[in-house]
Every structure is written in C-alpha cells, then in structure tokens.
C-alpha cells in the first residue's frame, strides 16, 4: 500500500476493517489479514472469506463452516456502469439470454460481470492462477444459478441480490467432503428487489 493513491488506500483499509469486524462476529479475535500472491486476503486458520469495495460501499464476509472451502463476494453500486462494449469479454451469448430472463430489470452484462468476479474470488487461489472471465459460464440450476468453471468438475452455487444500494453477488466453493455427501445444495436466494 506504500505507493497506492488515497482512494486505493482508503478502500484497502476499510475492507480490512470490515473483514476484522466480520471475524470478530464469528468469534475470531483481532488478527492481521495479509495479502496473498494473487491479491487474495489471507484468512486465519480454516476460515474462508471475501472482501469487495466499490465507490462508497464495501463488504466483507467470513465463513467458518467446514463445508465451505472458498467464498467470493462482489458489490457493484451501479451495475449499469459495466458497459455493453465489454460484453464480449464477459458474457457467452446463452448466459446473456438466461440473465435477461431471470433479471429483466438488471443489465445482463453487469450481473454477469459481478457474478464472475465473485467466482474468481472463490476459486482462483484453488486453481492457483489468473482467470479469464470467459472461462466461467453461468447456467440455470432449477430455480437457482450455478457457475461452471474450466478445470472444476462440479458446478458452484452462485447468488444475485439486487437492492437499493446496488448489486451484490456471491459464489460458494464447497469442500471436497460437502461435494462427496452432496451437502451443499443450490438453495442460494435469487432476489431481484
Ligand atoms: C481479482 C478481482 C476479482 C477483484 O475484483 P474487483 O471487482 O476488481 O474488486 P473488488 O473491490 O470487488 O474486490 C477487491 C478485493 O478482492 C480480493 N481479491 C483480489 N484478488 C483476489 C483473488 N485472486 N482471490 C480472492 N480474493 C481476491 C481482495 O480482498 C481485494 O481487495 P483488497 O485488495 O483491498 O484486499 C478482479 O480484478 C478480477 O476478476 N480479475 C480477473 C483476473 C484474475 O483472475 N485475477 C485473480 C488473480 S491474478
């Protein structure tokens, strides 16, 4: 953070503040949250978590459930800001159709972008590499949505929550044990209001 500008510094420290507050709520005392080689926050022990920030808001989630090996969240205050010209770098045509049907009041490109950023946060460290957003496909899974990721066998549950503050998305990466016992189901909420 030494050479970062003011805005970046503010978002980094506010993200860390939110993350420590979330850890405290989960019963985990004050601890440093360092930054890993892919930019990921390094969580203590067996905790998984995720941080996001946008213009004026930020969020952090932590999870101590052993069925969850990874979690990613993303917040976009104005999903319309994700311009249509970027669609080809983000969306597969069939995803655009699905998202337009599921979320008629939201821009498909913005929803896909946020969902895929959540997926990157949940899985890039597991894969150990940079990810292209087109390696991820969002599909329907009954009423819910799932992300299919190149290199991962099982689809991952993803969730979209649209509210007055903007758009919030989340992706869960189940642990091997949860997958084996099919413990983590696709019951993630689909909210559009
Ligand atoms: C990495 C990425 C998801 C960040 O998302 P973003 O929308 O730009 O920014 P957000 O504010 O929502 O999230 C930023 C936070 O995500 C977290 N993050 C960054 N990289 C991460 C990763 N690889 N895994 C998990 N979390 C990560 C960090 O906590 C970061 O905040 P911090 O630097 O203040 O700690 C995004 O830049 C991306 O999709 N990149 C694609 C390329 C890629 O694969 N990157 C992974 C490693 S090279």
Any overview of this molecule?
With 193 residues, this protein is α+β, with helices and mostly antiparallel strands. The chain has one domain: 4'-phosphopantetheinyl transferase domain (Ribosomal Protein L22, Chain A, Alpha-Beta Complex). The protein has five helices and eight strands. Strands 3, 4, 5, 6, 7 and 8 form a six-stranded mixed β-sheet that branches. Helix 3 crosses helix 4 (108-127). Bound molecules: coenzyme A.
Question: Which SSEs are present, and which pair or pack?
Answer:
Layout: H1 6-25, E1 48-53, E2 58-63, E3 68-76, H2 87-90, H3 93-102, H4 108-127, E4 136-141, E5 144-149, E6 156-163, E7 166-174, H5 176-180, E8 190-191
Parallel strand pairs: 6-8
Antiparallel strand pairs: 1-2, 3-7, 4-5, 5-6, 6-7
Helix pairs in contact: 3-4
The structure holds coenzyme A.
Q: What keyword list fits this structure?
A:
globular, alpha+beta, 6-stranded mixed sheet, binds coenzyme A, 193 residues
Short recap of the structure:
The protein has 193 residues and is of the alpha+beta class. The protein has helices spanning 6-25, 87-90, 93-102, 108-127, 176-180, and strands at residues 48-53, 58-63, 68-76, 136-141, 144-149, 156-163, 166-174, 190-191. It has a single domain (6-191), classed as 4'-phosphopantetheinyl transferase domain (Ribosomal Protein L22, Chain A).
Unreliable stretches? 188-193
CATH fold description: Ribosomal Protein L22, Chain A
Q: How many extended strands?
A: 8
Mean pLDDT: 90
CATH class: Alpha Beta
